[in-house]
Specification:
single chain; Leucine-rich Repeat Variant; two-stranded antiparallel ribbon; 6 helices; elongated
């Protein structure tokens, strides 16, 4: 017989099933239990079930190049701003665009790649990102990428300013030795 528990507010009993013999488990949790955050994949893999999209519920998604709104893959115009989703841009232009992506990991990767590629068009967007207070991880990634442009007067000025940034994460990124790979990565 399942245990009886109450919801966090203590209002209604919630059934808490016990373990089932032979049930597949990942990190002690049942796999694919159908809960609100269930992706159908083992916990921690970050891979959604084929054809599912947690935001639109309509399959794979893509991000609007104008407003960063999430749209179904089949959409041709953005649901938020109406822009066309078929906008083509060169690789470096796409990386510069990705600096503002809603996913922090995507923005950080874009900054790192721009530093590795040493594209001069990226200096000003990276400098703008390095001055922001909202997300110190994005700003630190931009500072590390700017180090690849050492010797450029604009990049050097922003690196010097980053040493007095309000975030210790950004200050450390500006003060790290430039050894290692491009962009200061070890």
């Amino acid at each position: 017989m399942p245990e009886q528990a109450t919801d966090p507010a203590g209002r209604a009993p919630v059934s808490a099933p016990g373990p089932v013999a032979g049930e597949p488990r990942v990190n002690g949790e049942p796999w694919g239990t159908g809960g609100p955050r269930d992706t159908g994949a083992p916990r921690g893999t970050g891979r959604p079930r084929a054809g599912s999209n947690a935001v639109t519920g309509e399959g794979p998604s893509r991000v609007c190049p104008a407003c960063y709104g999430i749209n179904a893959w089949s959409d041709t115009a953005c649901r938020r701003c109406g822009s066309t989703l078929e906008t083509a841009r060169d690789f470096d232009g796409g990386l510069i665009w990705a600096l503002e992506h809603p996913d922090t990991g995507t923005a950080i990767l874009a900054a790192r790649l721009l530093g590795e590629r040493r594209q001069w068009q990226a200096i000003e967007p990276l400098a703008r990102l390095s001055r922001r207070d909202g997300d110190p991880y994005r700003a630190a990634a931009a500072v590390r990428a700017l180090r690849a442009f050492a010797g450029d007067p604009i990049a050097d000025a922003h690196l010097a300013a980053a040493r007095s940034h309000p975030s210790v994460i950004v200050r450390r990124a500006a003060s790290e030795p430039a050894e290692g790979g491009p962009g200061g990565e070890p």
